[in-house]
Amino acid sequence: MQLWGAFLVAGMCVFTSCKKDEATPTPAKSLYERLGGNAAISAVIDQFITNVAGDARINAFFADAAADPARLTKLRNNLINQVGQATGGTEKYTGLDMKTSHKGMGIEESHFNALVEDLALALDKFKVPTAEKTELLTALGTMKADIVEGPTTLYSRLGGNAAISAVVDDFIGKVAADARINAFFAAAAANPARLNKLKLNLVNQIGQASGGPEKYTGLDMKTAHKGMKITDAQFNALVEDLQASLVKFKVESRTKIQLLTALGGMRADIVGQ
Ligand code: HEM
Hints:
By secondary structure, this protein is mostly helical.
């Protein structure tokens, strides 16, 4: 209630005169003061974070932060301090600059606009007057060029051939140690040339499927798994092993989800053949 009060007072100051004495004009209030200071900005940011978390257009970008309370708190504080400092408050923003902190994420204009919409909705919820809302959203607009990069390929977000090779190496190690499925790979594991070929096929398959220059020259998935009678549980075990390798190499959630979804699309050709 107090916060609503703060906004209402801020709003009233915009539409009526807050000057006590017309003869001695007080200095113009900063946007920070008109927004209602730290408490009101914090409430807006909390609502903004809730909006983003529920926004399927962009919430995958924030999945890693959402899953880690300390990281989310840091992001929240960074946002509050950034808005506070930019609007004339005493807060100090100590995070990364916008170009560095969003580099390589593949943020497109539509993502940027969705995020701004989520902030606008938060401002509306707290009845921030149009003038203040416009001023704040315009300030965000100036950061757009540093944040929007345009589409990136899954391949580049994975880190290209070297990073894919490292993940595949680790993945093969995990599969070899996984009693649920390692029997399928016993023949390959016992033959270095065959294991190498499998590794190369996997790297090329992921590279090609994610938009890289690699060319996959192995069998199609249906033919490659014919007669193996792989179950859903065994397929899931393999996906789990890959996921563990992606986590180990700190592949961000959006990229991870995209890769695992692509893998899911092959399930029908691999299971029950
Ligand atoms: C003007 C608009 C934006 C502002 C002011 C902004 C601000 C920030 C700030 C202050 C950080 C923290 C930097 C640090 O850790 O030092 C951050 C990180 C981040 N931003 Fe933005 N951002 C904007 C747009 C976007 C958009 C459009 C997206 C994606 C849809 C996005 C995704 C992210 C992600 C994923 C992080 C890292 C969060 C984490 O995992 O810790 N941002 N942003």
